[in-house]
Amino acid sequence: MGVQSINFSVTLDDKYVKESGYVYMTGLQALVRAPLVQSRRDKAAGLNTAGYVTGYRGSPLSAYDRELLIAQKHLDADGVTFEPGLNEDLAATAVWGSQQ
Question: How far apart are CA 70 and CA 74, in angstroms?
């Protein structure tokens, strides 16, 4: 019996697009993935929803903004809008306005 070779295909986008199996990512990347997964779950349930994320660079999670910008094409594909705020007040106002 010969040794079987296993072919694994892994891409950097797996953390945002892979729907089953193991996915490796940082904590911030997991926070980016959360609205993507929610959007896909909503679509699977027949719901027509959209996501909105905002923040500001002075935030304790300012690196989250950077990860959201890196994943912009995935956010767009799943109907999740990321709008960076210039400061805390504008970011909070944007979220409040999105709920009106």
Answer: 9
